[in-house]
Write a structure and sequence with these properties.
Layout lengths: L2 E6 L8 H13 L2 E7 L1 H14 L8 E5 L10 H7 L4 H10 L5 E4 L3 H11 L10 E6 L7 E4 L9 H17 L7 E5 L10 H17 L2 E6 L11 E3 L2 H26 L3 H9 L1 H11 L7 E4 L5 E3 L6 H17 L1 H11 L1
Parallel strand pairs: 1-2, 1-4, 2-3, 4-11, 6-9, 7-8, 7-9
Antiparallel strand pairs: 5-6, 5-10, 10-11
Helix pairs in contact: 1-2, 1-11, 3-5, 4-5, 6-7, 6-12
Amino acid sequence: MPIDIVLDAMGSDKAPDPEVRGAVFAARSLDVRVHLVGPEETLRPKLRAALKQHGGRDRLPVFIVQASEWISMEDKAALAVRSKRDSSMRVGLKMVREGRAGGFVTAGNTGAAMATAKMVLGSLSGIDRPALATAFPTSGGSPCVLLDVGANVDCDPENLRQFAVMGHVYSKNVLHIPRPRIGLLSNGEEDGKGDTLVRNTLPVLRELAAELNLNFIGNVEGRDIFNCHADVIVCDGFVGNVALKTCEGTAKMLSIILKESLKSTMTSQVGALLSRKAFMAFKKRLDYSEYGGAQLLGVRGPVIVGHGSSNERAIMNCIRVAAEFAEAEVGSGIETLLAKH
């Protein structure tokens, strides 16, 4: 049976075009019904054009839900959440809370998305602060989940303990890794390494692992995000966001350098032509749009926050991840584990 996913149609930098095209793309490719939230007078002609571009299939399960306001990237999150009561974020999240949809997707203001989700959906039992989690590609093929990547700049060991549980359940239930290896991000693997937060968190996570039989492997380093040494890596939101932005920049640079190198000489151009399929696979593996945004873990419902510059493919993959998240019952798994500790 198709899963209903709500999409904030006014979130991205170029909204609503990527959202509308991404919704149509998802409705054609996935077993979902997509509800575009925003001003109908703006969305209706965009949706007609997108459907026409895809062969006029006006029976695709894409619907419009009216919302008269939206939160821009320039809006102050706290003020916008309080003042814009008919925003596309708030209207969409209410649909999830009321059970009319299984998940919510936005490529809009991250701070506003987190604040609105926490206010409308509420936090899971045992969770003090929701966290943003992102899946990174690794050399081994299976993704590595890093959290928090920006929701909480200042954390204490208790927050990181909760992040470890959330990452474990997400990796196990959504990514289907039977016994996820959990690491604590530090500047060295030895117990004495790290700042005060890391050193104080290490024994807390060891105690958690012993009590709940989790696969905690101790401190890990930045390179372990990509080398398949860990499946879940825990850190505070400041460190995680710096790591995320650094990785995005590095991936983009590698693609540009490789493309330039393949065009530099006649011999390399011939080689590029012969290896075009391999190059496209390489580029796809590094492309953020393939990984479906960041998951807001710790609230009562699947919430996916995409990049502001998301194109239609990125939006489609955000919808895909939201549907997978909804089917996996991540929230109940997190609450069950935390209740045991």
